[in-house]
Structures are given as structure tokens and as C-alpha cells.
Design goal:
7 helices, globular
Length: about 220
Amino acid sequence: MTTFKHEIMPGDHSFIAGIDRYCDRWCERCAFTSKCRSYHLERQPTMLDQPEIFNAAFWIEMDGQLSELIQRIASETAGQAGVPELPSMHHSAREHPFAMSALEYAGMIDDWKDSGKQWPLLPEEAWEIIRQYSCFLYPKLVRAIEVGMSDRYGVHDEEYAEGTAKTVLITIDRSLGAWGMVYRRYPDYEDAVLALLLHLDRLRKSVEALFPNARSFHRPVLDD
């Protein structure tokens, strides 16, 4: 079982080594900034005194809605082809089909914003999640694939590919939930939103196939 060390830093802060490797870089919504050395080193000093606010009830509610949404998506994706295999060359991580799918999703968001259509005003919570994660997925997934390939070739890293992939899956889940909010609130835009939902769902299944142990990986503190 993977274990992580507590590190004591000046100022009586108890930090968890490695916690920042598996986060989603959304410090403003993180409940664990007091445990993160990167946060204390990188953020402005004035931010260190701000209370840690994370609306756990919001995420719990979204998780519940996600289950219903995935059942709906399953009916739309029945019979689709399987997912491609992990490429054999390390340098291909950035061009891996799954990574390119994440990049394509970011482009779909740009197309959504720049299409010139009169889209409805998205729910504030939903748009905040969509905006935060749309450009995060590609580099994080590339990192997971790179670490996974390094491990396969005997180049071990303190970072674990399954942990990074789990973060990718969580951000996909939350993005699906956010688009699900839009999907339910604006039925007139069902077709446009459904295309995004189907793309994200296929990416989710692809990452799960590529990293079958990711969901069960225990990230320090984040999964306690």
C-alpha cells in the first residue's frame, strides 16, 4: 500500500508530502490548503489567512445527479467501439488518442463560446466548473500517461500514474455533472450539450480502461 509522509515546516504547519501531485489546482475550492506546501509557497501571503471553504454538500449532490446522467448517456453510447491501447513509445504521450480527446474537448468549449449563437446564461456553479477544468484535462492526462509509460520502462517516479489518472477522472466526473446541470435546465439546447456529454463520457471510459486501478487509488488526505 502506498504511504505518504507528514512534513513539518516552519510556522508549525504540518504538510503532506505529495498531496499537490494529485490535486486539481483549484485552491479556492480546496479544503486542504493547510496541508499543502505548494499552496503556502506559491500563493500570496494574504491568501494564507483566508478560511478554507469547500462546499462538500454541492459535490455530494452533483455526484448523485451524475449517476442518473451516466445512465442516460449509456443508452446513447450502446454499441460504440472500444478504446484504443496505450502506445508503446514514451514520446507519444502528448499525441496519445486519449490526450488528444481531452484537447478536443477544450476546443469544443471554445467553439461553444465563439459560435456566435445565443446560448443561455449557464448556471454560475456549472460554468465555474466547466471553465476551471476544460484546459486542465489535457496536461494532467498527458502527465498520467507519461508517468505510466515511465513506470513500464522501469523509470520510477515518486508520482503514481494511477493517482494522477484518478484526478483526471474526478475532473471529468465534475465536468459531466456541470454539463448535466445545463442539460436539465435548458432542454432546448439538448443536442448541443449532449454532444459534449457523450465526448466526456467516452473520455472517462477511456481513462478508466487505460488506468484500471485509478478509481481505487488512495490519494493522501484528499481521499481520507
